[in-house]
Amino acid sequence: MPTSVVQRIHAYLREEEEFGGYQVTYLRKTDLEQLYTEAAQLLNCHPRNISFAHDATDAYTKALSSIHFLKGDVIITTDNDYASNHIHFLSLKKRYGIEIVRANSLENGDLDLEDFAQKVEQYGPKLVSVTHVPTNSGLIQDVGKVGEICATKGIIYIVDACQSVGQLVVDVKQIQCDFLSATGRKFLRGPRGTGFLYVSDRMLDAGYTPMVLDGQGAFWKEETLIEPQPTARRFETFEAPFAMVAGLIEALCYVNKMGVGNIQSYNAQLMALLKNQLKSIKGVELYDLGTKQCNILTFRKGGRSLEETQKILDSHNIFYSVSEKHWGLIDFNKKGIEWAIRLSPHYFNTKEEVERVVEIVESF
User: Fold this and answer.
1) Which of 151, 173, 220, 265: CA 20 to 30 A from 130?
2) pTM for the full model?
């Protein structure tokens, strides 16, 4: 996280220590409202379309819970949706008897849009869900083209943008989605335990609400009558980690001031350098597919076990993640691997740091 994000969290906590939680939310009410304006600026929407979430999964499941599924309803998704999303769908299948259909991918890894359109016609889905960037590779899925198809049919469309917000330009008007879930951590560089949900005017006007509301999401008007909030805040709950919300606001301000277009442009330079040099090293295999890729790179070096690879990277203070098969089951089955090292250079990295990583990988 940027220093300013941490400082804002600490400042809020110190005020809570001195004045108590309720008083600080009252004193900082105007400051906390900045969440909605900054997130709206980032996604190119209105503040009324933004709801705070405790994480990307919280945002996604609340959106999913607002849809009234019946036995036989169809969800169309892709081979590269988040593992958690596939688990959600399988849970819905078990509970409601819905059907799950996956659109095919082309040999190069791109979503087969022709197959997707054909399956939309064939199955008439209740919902389409696409992950913009999966956790297990740097593939960028064409969520905009999917949105065009869904819009012509009036299909509810959810985009999981957990891995794309903060590193790529994400424009909900261009995507034409009904819901979009995002996390505060990862490329946005905010604190864990934060995220947000975009809800379109179409969903708000049609009265979509999460399955369970509380005193934040709805007003108790009469003993047997509730009235949902008119905005996306109907998807919120009363209790929130407001110090972390303050940190999320600072992270949003930070990225908006930097300009996400500038971030995307510089990141592309970093990734081109990393990818071109890594693939020239004997024994290194890169696993990222697709005509469009982002700042996630997965690789292995032949002959090295996961434990050996981790030991070497750790000894050189390289920060990485391990993508394991259960996080991208379909993708990793196709690639015939159980794991891969994931590198995610971001705009705070330098070209010299990228070159140093390449030197280290070449040396072992």
Assistant:
1) 265
2) 0.96
